[in-house]
């Protein structure tokens, strides 16, 4: 599970300790954090991070949602794609030169070179699925892919068109407004937890709440400091700087920065890295390792605990739960992400949230009694 | 006049455009900004900045407030002091080694070496006066010093002990509370302007309002970035970092950082530089020049205008009013200070305040009709 910031370059609506509990209640047996360095990245690095963790945990299968729904179609495409690698790469470069964004260039290049494939590579979850399977190959992992078809809601759908299924975007939109309830679209414990969080912490975490900090950061940074931020390329950071001066909310800011060259998501990720002060150097030094070098265990059920005990001897990586003196440096980017994530809360609620990072994990869930406890 | 941040390392209660008007109404004929780089410094650099500007403006006299009140006493001390420079410097080093703060070491060294002097060098405004007169000598200026005795209120007095005179600290304290009015201690136009500012901008500028930004900045900066901040020495920045985690207001933070080695003011100045992201490099490159290289004219009366016209040919420096493409780089630290200063306001009020920097100055005052106008 992603930590405080998500792949689309935005804060999670509620922090990871709340989502860990929801995942356990919804049936997950182990909740492992996908570190910030991988969770806020484009599909290829995101998938590598996730797959390397599952591989290190000696999993047998990885299952992902896709618009396609049949795993064979993915494996067929991967096979074809491998034979056409250089031709596809040439196409990608051509489309980039024509001014397309990277995801559009990638998707168009696949469409052009793999006309006979049954997989619709214009759809975002199919694309992510390709990256998962390619990451499995990259790590020479013995894991097999499986997929579940996504129905009734596309990720980007802003409206709810089905009586019980809605996209994350649509659910966020409901949470921002006052008119509709999310109760039709999420389990009741999710709705209750979100309400409880608002009562306890005073707010949900939307980008708009971070705008004063983003603006402050941009206006007090030197040109060099902004250029050193990860994903600051081709003067995009200067575009952000000029736009932020005249915008009164996050939506306005994004609209004002947006060009055909960069996707909405790509820009949000840059803003996230500016907000968290994540530099090119910081990311490069971590990505050099290729695999995530530790397991950050956020939560487990009794079943998950048994699984870990059984596989313990086979797992080569250290398993971290809380942050302590020994692992503080290795987990510093995620700790920084939590500090940034907390910044829009009142000072006392900030302290409460930071404390979870140091002392709350792993969250232990007894699935029979439906009770949480500490280890 | 200092810009948005003051010598004691704190934000001005209201921004410089408001204080410019107050100064003009109170009888000042020219209001020139002492740039951030000089205004947020210890007495020696603060005095050099101020004196270099007045000297560049071809002033005849500089008049300062002091506890002493007689200028001859100052000139006598300066004369004695020059003959004892090396002995005084040795004493300062000794007292610093004993753990005294710099101002305490300086004052104690003067007391020890200049026993026969009539000037009480334990008093802060007398010390500042010495620095003004030494700066006049340093620049070989033809200006003469004059002094007015401060009565009834010491700078640090927190309470008001006189029916109509109060220290800046005491006035700030009244403004923070709800119980007392400042009307006994300031002209009525000052009281009205402050109330108007609260109505228009929603708040006054106290350190406490910046604490969320200071905390955010500290928690997202690397060790190196913090070490590069001006006045971050001997690990003091690490002390700040650890303290900010556990403090819910600015007073608590300061009390938790404070040691005998560093004055309250010294620590506030470091916090100001952290907040504005002002680096050692940035300050060093500017201080190399010794003199302030431009005149930033914030306001003038008819008399002030006449003065400038008369002396125009003698003044070698460029006179800047608003910020524009030509001078933007030279004024960047002050622009950054205004952005930082604005950060605690709502986003629309931030825009309004930033606009003053670009287009409001110089503020022109007709002292006969008591009217303000634009140039």
TrEMBL record, chains A, B:
ATP binds at residues 65, 125, 150-151. It catalyses: cytidine(34) in elongator tRNA(Met) + acetate + ATP = N(4)-acetylcytidine(34) in elongator tRNA(Met) + AMP + diphosphate. InterPro entries: Rossmann-like_a/b/a_fold (IPR014729), tRNA(Met)_cyd_acetate_ligase (IPR008513). Its EC number is 6.3.4.-. It is found in: Cytoplasm. It comes from the Bacteria. Keywords: ATP-binding, Cytoplasm, Ligase, Nucleotide-binding, RNA-binding, tRNA processing, tRNA-binding. The keyword Glycosyltransferase does not apply. It is an enzyme of class 6 (ligase). Its main location: cytoplasm. Catalyzes the formation of N(4)-acetylcytidine (ac(4)C) at the wobble position of elongator tRNA(Met), using acetate and ATP as substrates. First activates an acetate ion to form acetyladenylate (Ac-AMP) and then transfers the acetyl group to tRNA to form ac(4)C34. This is tRNA(Met) cytidine acetate ligase. It comes from Gottfriedia luciferensis. The gene is tmcAL.
């Amino acid at each position: 599970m992603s930590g405080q910031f998500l792949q689309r370059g935005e804060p999670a609506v509620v922090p990871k300790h709340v989502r860990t509990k929801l995942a356990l209640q919804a049936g997950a047996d182990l909740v492992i954090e996908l570190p910030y360095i991988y969770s806020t990245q484009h599909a290829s690095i995101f998938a590598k991070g996730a797959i390397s963790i599952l591989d290190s945990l000696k999993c047998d299968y990885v299952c992902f949602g896709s618009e396609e729904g049949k795993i064979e179609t993915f494996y067929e495409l991967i096979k074809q794609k491998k034979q056409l690698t250089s031709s596809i790469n040439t196409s990608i470069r051509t489309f980039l030169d024509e001014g397309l964004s990277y995801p559009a260039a990638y998707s168009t290049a696949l469409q052009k070179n793999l006309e006979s494939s049954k997989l619709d590579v214009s759809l975002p979850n199919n694309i992510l699925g390709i990256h998962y399977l390619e990451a499995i190959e990259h790590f020479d992992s013995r894991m097999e892919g499986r997929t579940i078809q996504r129905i009734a809601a596309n990720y980007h759908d802003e409206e709810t068109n089905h009586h019980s299924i809605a996209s994350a975007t649509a659910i966020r939109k409901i949470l921002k407004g006052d008119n509709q309830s999310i109760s039709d679209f999420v389990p009741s414990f999710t709705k209750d937890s979100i309400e409880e969080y608002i009562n306890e912490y005073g707010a949900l975490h939307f980008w708009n709440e971070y705008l004063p900090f983003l603006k402050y950061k941009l206006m007090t940074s030197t040109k060099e400091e902004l250029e050193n931020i990860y994903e600051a390329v081709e003067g995009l950071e200067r575009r952000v700087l000029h736009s932020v001066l005249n915008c009164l909310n996050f939506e306005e800011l994004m609209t004002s920065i947006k060009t055909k060259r960069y996707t909405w998501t790509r820009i949000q990720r840059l803003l996230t890295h500016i907000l968290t002060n994540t530099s090119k150097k910081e990311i490069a030094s971590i990505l050099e390792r290729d695999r995530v070098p530790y397991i950050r265990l956020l939560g487990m059920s009794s079943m998950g605990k048994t699984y870990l005990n059984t596989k313990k001897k086979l797992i080569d990586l250290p398993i971290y739960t809380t942050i302590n003196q020994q692992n503080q440096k290795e987990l510093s980017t995620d700790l920084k992400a939590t500090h940034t994530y907390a910044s829009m809360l009142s000072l006392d609620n900030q302290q409460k949230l930071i404390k979870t990072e140091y002392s709350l994990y792993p969250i232990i869930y007894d699935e029979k009694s439906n009770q949480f406890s500490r280890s």
